[in-house]
Amino acid sequence: MFKKLTIAAAGTALMAFGVSEAAQAASFNVDVLASGLNSPRGLTIGSDGALYATEAGKGGSGSCIPSPSRPNVDLCYGATGRLLRIQNGVTEPIVI
């Protein structure tokens, strides 16, 4: 009997925690600052208040090496990476 009560109490506690987490998550607003980025990697906020993002890019047809994490896939060099400044709804390439 005690074992059943313990399991029931644990289940109730988990359900209450899950509902609480869902209620908290529902209160957040999400704003899209930039879209259409090619493999974004790093983000930082500059002293000017702008958001800076780096893009790894799309790769290319340059020299290739085997992927360290995906078997039978090659990673090829391409000069498509960029540094972007995102401010006031405007995405501007800083370094291409």
Care to describe what's here?
The chain is of the alpha+beta class and about 100 residues long. About 25% of the residues lie in helices and about 30% in strands. It has one helix and six strands. It has one helix at about 1-25, and strands at about 40-45, 50-55, 65, 75, 80-85, 90-95. The strands form two sheets. A four-stranded antiparallel sheet has the order 1-2-5-6, with no helix packed on it. A two-stranded antiparallel sheet has the order 3-4. β5 and β6 (about 90-95) form a beta hairpin. The chain is extended and about 40 Å long. It starts with a helix and ends with a strand. Residues about 1-10 have low confidence and may be disordered.
The stretches of 5 or more residues where confidence is low (pLDDT under 50) are: 1-11
Helical fraction: 25-40%
Strand order, sheet with most strands: 1-2-5-6
**DSSP strand content:** 25-35%
Mean pLDDT across residues: 79
What's the main sheet like? 4 strands, antiparallel
State the order of secondary-structure elements, H for helix, E for strand: HEEEEEE
> What is the general shape?
extended
What's the total helix number? 1
Count of strand segments: 6
Computed structural class: alpha+beta
Task: Report how far the terminal alpha carbons are from each other.
Answer: 68 Å
Radius of gyration: 23 Å
